[in-house]
């Protein structure tokens, strides 16, 4: 009897162990399917699109060909317009810097400057190797009256990291009221860190938000303060972000030039074209009262873009200032780059869906101009649709290769670029527009990049646009299945 009881107990124990293993296996398979579904859907999208064009008749192919050529030219032309308009803010910034250098002082006396909080946000497991250097740099290099400046490190970590955390607290004691170190217990994101800081009474009039990898230019804060003082209608000042670790890998060299194009050309140019600017997540200065009341929405993957669009929806004004410079690190390897850009891509999709009503709505107590509404359509709709336009055009070109494989380079050129009448004109105008944009980028590129890097960037620019389009569609599929993992950018 005792042996039967023991045998039954062992059987139950074995059954429970088997059930546990099955649960783990099912959970693992479920997570695997969930993680890889967007990838599989993206592959299916490409295959199905190419097959569609292969099956189309010549008249339909011709219609699609001209449609994509016209759209590509339109996007390239808009990019050129933005680039030309972006020259003026840069020229104004340089003129302001020359005036300050000539007279040896800024327009505003130190005693009239606003009280400023510089907020450094860190996820400690990723940034434990750089956080002390970043804080020390801010303490030692930023030129701003010390009685009006506070450096705030707000960080989170899932597990204690010693002796680093103790060393950070010692730094706080050494620098008295100039440095405040805050560990946000229970935080799982940048938004949680920011929202906790907003509950603190620091007395700041202006709050600057920086990611932990940033080295602000010594006069970064002063230029931002001067912009607020010169124009009281300004609520947010977004500075220029410059990648400095260009010598580490090929990725960092190309991303540095991309950032020059984005922050020194596209953002200021688009701001002039559509009459509104946006906070971009880091190296941004807010009026403290606005930001504290604004908060960050942690359920958004790009809470910074969401906050920027919410501020604009409330009628707040953001400007881009090229003198407010900050130097940051680019991802050094493929997976870090992929995770960062996928978070940005899906985050932009979330924000675009959420804020779409701004296109037809008005801000409280005001109205939007036609150019602003057109800018919102371009930002929230055309930008999201551009992923499909770029990839569909590419699929169409692939179908040409499948249905009529060329026997020479000349045949390949005629097949891809000169298939129909007027094709060469659209091609030359589109490529010319891109060359002009890259030429303007060359004019404004940072001191860390080279002309050789510019040629490399130009050579990969078209393939990179196709990669961006693919990543955008991948992000859309992630949003459709409800993927919501927040992946911080690796600094290693």
Automatic annotation (TrEMBL):
Entry's localization field: Membrane
Keywords: Glycosyltransferase, Membrane, Transferase, Transmembrane, Transmembrane helix
A GO term from the CC aspect: membrane
UniProt record, GO biological process: proteolysis
SUPFAM superfamilies given in the database record: Nucleotide-diphospho-sugar transferases
Transmembrane segment boundaries: 36-56, 63-85, 385-405, 417-440, 452-474
PROSITE patterns linked to this entry: ASP_PROTEASE
GO molecular function per UniProt: aspartic-type endopeptidase activity; glycosyltransferase activity
Membrane topology annotation: Multi-pass membrane protein
Originating organism: Aureobasidium subglaciale (strain EXF-2481)
Annotated ranges, domain Glycosyltransferase 2-like: 206-402
Name this protein carries in UniProt: Glycosyltransferase family 2 protein
Domain of life: Eukaryota
The keyword Glycosyltransferase is annotated on this UniProt entry: yes
């Amino acid at each position: 009897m005792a042996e039967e009881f023991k045998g039954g107990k062992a059987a139950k124990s074995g059954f429970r162990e088997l059930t546990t293993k099955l649960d783990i296996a099912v959970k693992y398979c479920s997570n695997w399917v969930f993680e890889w579904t967007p990838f599989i859907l993206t592959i299916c999208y490409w295959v199905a699109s190419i097959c569609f064009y292969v099956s189309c008749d010549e008249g339909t192919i011709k219609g699609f060909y001209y449609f994509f050529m016209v759209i590509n030219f339109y996007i390239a032309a808009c990019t050129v317009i933005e680039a030309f308009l972006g020259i003026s803010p840069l020229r104004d910034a340089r003129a302001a810097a020359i005036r300050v250098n000539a007279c040896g002082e800024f327009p505003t006396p130190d005693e009239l400057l606003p009280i400023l909080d510089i907020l450094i946000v860190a996820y400690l497991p990723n940034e434990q190797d750089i956080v002390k250097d970043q804080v020390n740099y801010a303490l030692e290099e930023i030129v701003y009256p010390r009685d009006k400046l506070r450096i705030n490190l707000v960080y989170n970590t899932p597990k204690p990291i010693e002796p680093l955390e103790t060393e950070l607290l010692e730094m706080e004691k050494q620098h008295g009221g100039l440095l405040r170190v805050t560990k946000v217990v229970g935080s799982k994101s940048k938004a949680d860190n920011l929202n906790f800081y907003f509950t603190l009474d620091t007395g700041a009039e202006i709050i600057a938000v920086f990611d932990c990898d940033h080295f602000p230019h010594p006069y970064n804060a002063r230029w931002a303060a001067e912009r607020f003082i010169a124009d009281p209608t300004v609520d947010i000042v977004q500075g220029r972000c410059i990648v400095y670790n260009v010598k580490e890998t090929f990725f960092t060299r190309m991303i540095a030039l991309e950032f020059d194009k984005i922050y020194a050309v596209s953002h200021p140019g688009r701001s002039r074209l559509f009459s509104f600017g946006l906070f971009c997540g880091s190296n941004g200065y807010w009026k403290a009262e606005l930001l504290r009341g604004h908060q960050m929405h942690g359920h958004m993957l790009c809470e910074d873009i969401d906050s920027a669009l919410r501020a604009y929806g409330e009628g707040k004004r953001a400007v881009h200032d090229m003198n407010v410079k900050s130097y940051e690190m680019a991802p050094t390897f493929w997976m870090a780059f992929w995770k960062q850009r996928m978070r940005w891509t899906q985050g932009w999709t979330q924000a675009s869906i959420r804020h779409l009503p701004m296109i037809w709505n008005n801000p409280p107590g005001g109205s939007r101009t036609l150019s602003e509404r057109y800018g919102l359509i371009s930002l929230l709709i055309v930008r999201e649709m551009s992923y499909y336009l770029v990839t569909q055009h590419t699929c169409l070109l692939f179908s040409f290769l499948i249905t009529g494989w060329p026997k020479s380079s000349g045949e390949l050129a005629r097949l891809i670029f000169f298939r129909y009448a007027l094709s060469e004109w659209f091609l030359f105008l589109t490529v010319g527009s891109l060359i002009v944009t890259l030429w303007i980028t060359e004019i404004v590129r940072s001191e860390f990049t080279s002309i050789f890097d510019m040629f490399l960037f130009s050579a990969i620019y078209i393939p990179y646009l196709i990669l961006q389009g693919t990543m955008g569609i991948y992000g859309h599929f992630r949003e459709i299945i409800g993927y919501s993992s927040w992946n911080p950018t690796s600094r290693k």
